[in-house]
Design brief:
Helices cover 16% and strands 40% of the residues. The chain has 852 residues and is of the alpha+beta class.
């Protein structure tokens, strides 16, 4: 049982209670010599912990070292403001000034009761009252408000905090904060007023605040945060400016607490204005000998396009940086827009002027308790002594935010030691950069899969990235070790190292397994914000693993049961002539495909098995062009990836592989996003013969509705494994429309998709013949390749019989996309419209993963 007692005194009580007697006393003695005493004649009573000289020090003498009325008043106020005393009295006794004090108690312990959502350690850091510190009632009141604010920041506006004071012997007290947390107070609704061009559903994608729903406990975006709501206003404004609405105003963000719903109602009031297009782009300069047209190539604004404030800002930044590179360090690029309100157009003029000659005196970094200074400074393209360039400072701030090492990043300027000097202040707040995750998932391709990984984005505070991951699944197993140095030798070049082992087991899609062990270093270069280059080298060892029942060929030349049948059929491929008698047994089958008749794997697979461990050594590069508005959930922009790899820098294989992939996103009406996906690849033989494993293998990654490895050239051995052989050329085209379910809350994260795919994989150039342990085959000819091959001609084929028809595969389908709190999930159901004779269909596909 707790006991609470009032502690008398306090600042207000002291002022009220003792102001009158002190004033009266001093008034009656103002003309006496006692009223002008020195500090040394002050008598102090009642003090226990505070030294007498400390109390006397608050009385500062006037001229001549004497204490007058003003000095005594100032001393009284100063003592009260220290918070060390409950009571301070000043009296005149026998010609002396007597200061009587009652000290505040000392806090013995501080405790928190009723707090379950926020730990004691977190609250202790936030309050000012400390154990063994001086008790102060105003400070306790401030601490109570601080605890309340912390709970409100976490979405609990019904919180009640009550401080209790328990007196102990020796002028000590215990301080206990009793917390009634209340239920979570979320955002119950988000509404928009005045939006015509964009629906409320679309605008909810732009902001960070989310409405409360059944899965809100997995995140915190539904918690009402006034700072976040204010930031959302800016996000909405920037979104409209990016899409041509130059006059937009987000007039207000109204918030109202609804006691019935026990949550907040947030309403954004918007005045959109008209959408503008660019009528003209001009360039002017007031700097002698500077040609402003030289900056034209850096403009991202084009005539006839929708006005885009974001593109305008990036253009200004790049132009200003280029002017600095050309020797005009103080050049400032300012845009001027002349609007035609009737035609809804804007003419933009980039004006280049001479800015103030200001230099950077110092760059001060504050708040980096873990990250080394040089990791932060290397994100700047300027240093102490350089000309001040706002564009470069803004770029540095953006780079620091993109590092994802800090909760907040803010760069401000302060005056330097002279009028032409400035000091850059970099204020940071660090955050955790390590991740430990256990993730699990299931897909129709890889089956059940689990992964344990540990990673650190800011290893040792040096900006290094390190990750170790172990994967174990139904059909896929392995591990990966990765390391990235983002600034190799202090240049903006990223060095990456990957060591990996992967094992793919045989499953219903492939008859064989593969085991790969490799190492790959790479160098990454950022050519522009939207263009990057990667150079890489890969060396890996690969081998095939095949079940024994698929490699027990008994159709050797010495086998007495082998004989040719001039008219075999695909239905009779067991190895004996129709109607013949072998060892007293009559067989009614045919011969046709020799070794495959008893369930063998295809010739290329067995040849890969015989080759054992094969070493591949390859050089490659990738060019990536990315203008997506959001890498995780894009709705607008272009993504192009072009890759080439040359194998043959040593090793056992040689080829040139070229791959291109293009995705174009564009928003259509009513929140519908269209996606055009084009892809293609060519494998070219260079010197050595191509292996089957070198070929492209395609399935739902090219045309949905087909099984993995379900498209393209395939071995024809009906009683064998019918292995996919792959091809040296492929192409694919897809059109997809993604749309939200307007009847569901936005926060569910569900979208639907409809799509149509087309593509082809063809031109197998791998092994078709071999000679091994007496099993001699001859090269395949046109009579052995579908669609030319017939039951009759197959009987003359002792090499590989396979299908390589150039059929265009097409399909249509629907998908369900869920950005779930457990991770991204996608379900697809597709129906093939055209397919090859031996293609394998898989209409339903599911994939997803989660971390927990």
């Amino acid at each position: 049982m707790k006991f609470g007692m009032r502690v008398r005194g306090g600042v207000l009580a002291a002022l009220v209670m003792f102001a009158a007697p002190v004033a009266a006393t001093l008034a009656t003695t103002a003309s006496t010599p006692a009223a002008a005493q020195t500090v040394a004649s002050i008598v102090v009573e009642g003090n226990r912990r505070v030294e007498i000289e400390t109390i006397r020090s608050y009385f500062r003498p006037g001229p001549g070292g004497r204490l007058g009325q003003a000095q005594i008043d100032d001393g009284l106020k100063a003592l009260i403001e220290t918070g060390l005393f409950q009571d301070v009295r000043i009296n005149q006794q026998r010609g002396q000034i007597v200061v009587t004090v009652v000290e505040n108690p000392v806090i013995g312990r501080i405790a928190f009761e009723g707090n379950r959502k926020i730990k004691d350690e977190q609250l202790s850091v936030e309050i000012q009252s400390k154990p063994r510190g001086t008790f102060s009632r105003p400070m306790v009141q401030s601490d109570t408000q601080r605890i309340t604010e912390i709970y409100r920041r976490s979405g609990r506006y019904d919180v009640r905090v009550t401080p209790e004071i328990i007196e102990q012997p020796n002028n000590r007290v215990d301080l206990i904060f009793t917390v009634v947390e209340g239920s979570k107070t979320g955002v119950r609704s988000i509404e928009f007023i005045g939006n015509v061009a964009y629906s409320s559903y679309r605008l909810r994608d732009v902001i960070k605040t989310r409405e409360s729903n059944l899965l809100s406990f997995l995140g915190g975006a539904d918690v009402y945060d006034p700072d976040r709501v204010e930031a959302d206003r800016d996000l909405i404004r920037r979104f409209y400016l990016k899409n041509g609405y130059a006059d937009v105003q987000v007039v207000a963000a109204l918030t109202e607490y609804d006691p019935e719903k026990k949550g907040f109602l947030v309403t954004f009031k918007i005045e959109e204005g008209q959408q503008y297009r660019v009528a003209a782009v001009n360039y002017t300069s007031t700097i002698p000998n500077f040609d402003p047209n030289a900056l034209r190539i850096y403009s991202r604004v084009s005539v006839g396009a929708v006005y885009n404030a974001e593109a305008l800002e990036k253009s200004i930044e790049e132009m200003q940086i280029e002017a600095s590179r050309r020797g005009y360090a103080f050049a400032v690029v300012r845009p001027r827009g002349d609007r035609n309100f009737e035609a809804h157009t804007v003419s933009i003029t980039f004006a280049v002027d001479e800015g103030p000659r200001t230099y950077i005196e110092r760059i001060n970094i504050r708040g980096n308790t873990r990250t080394r200074d040089y990791v932060i400074r290397r994100e700047f393209d300027l240093s102490e002594g350089d000309a001040y360039n706002r564009a470069l400072v803004d770029r540095a701030e953006r780079r620091l935010k993109n590092l994802d090492f800090f909760k907040t990043v803010k760069i401000i300027t302060e005056p330097g030691s002279s009028s032409d000097r400035v000091v850059l202040i970099v204020d940071l707040e660090e955050k955790s950069t390590g991740d430990f995750s256990v993730s699990g998932g299931y897909s129709t391709t890889d089956g059940a899969l689990a992964e344990v990984s540990i990673s650190e984005r800011n290893f040792l505070g040096r900006g290094l990235y390190a990750k170790a991951a172990v994967t174990y699944g139904q059909y896929a197993r392995g591990y990966t070790l990765s390391f990235v140095e983002p600034y190799l030798l202090d240049y903006r070049v990223a060095l990456g190292l990957d060591l990996y082992q992967r094992q793919q087991l045989a499953n219903s899609y492939i008859s064989y397994g593969t085991k790969t062990f490799g190492f790959s270093p790479r160098l990454g270069f950022t050519l522009r914000e939207d263009l990057s280059l990667q150079l890489r080298y890969s060396i890996y060892q690969q081998e095939i693993q095949l079940p024994s029942n698929l490699r027990n060929c008994n159709n050797l030349l010495g086998n007495p049961f082998l004989a040719f049948n001039p008219t075999p059929s695909f239905a009779n491929l067991n190895g004996y002539p129709n109607g013949s008698t072998q060892n007293g047994a009559t067989d009614t089958s045919g011969i046709g495909l020799w070794c495959y008749s008893d369930g063998e794997a295809s010739l290329p697979v067995r040849k890969e098995l015989q080759s054992g461990k094969v070493l591949t050594s390859a050089l490659g590069y990738s060019l990536n062009y990315n203008t997506l508005d959001n890498n995780k959930n894009p709705t607008d922009g272009l993504l192009i990836d072009f890759r080439q790899d040359f194998a043959g820098v040593g090793g056992d294989v040689s080829y040139l592989k070229t791959v291109a992939d293009l995705k174009y996103y564009t928003p259509l009406v009513s929140d519908v996003v269209s996606i055009i996906h084009l892809q293609g690849g060519v494998l070219t033989k260079v010197g050595k013969d191509l292996r089957m494993l070198d070929h492209f293998q395609m399935g739902p990654n090219l045309v949905r509705g087909f099984a993995p490895n379900g498209i393209g050239p395939r071995a024809i051995n009906p009683f064998g494994s019918m292995d996919a052989l792959g091809g040296t050329k492929y192409w694919g085209a897809s059109l997809e429309l993604q749309m939200p379910f307007w009847f569901l809350p936005k926060e569910t994260g569900l979208k639907g998709a409809i799509y149509a795919d087309a593509g082809g994989l063809f031109d197998y150039q791998g092994p078709t013949t071999w000679s091994y342990t007496g099993e001699v085959t001859t090269p395949a000819n046109s009579a052995c390749i579908a669609p030319t091959v017939t039951p009759a001609s197959a009987g003359t084929c002792t090499g590989l019989v396979y299908d390589d028809s150039r059929v265009v595969r097409t399909s249509v389908g629907v998908g369900l996309i869920w950005a779930s709190p457990f991770g991204p999930l996608r379900f697809d159901y597709a129906v093939p419209l055209t397919k090859g004779q031996f293609d394998r269909v898989q209409q339903f596909k599911f994939g997803g993963s989660s971390a927990f």
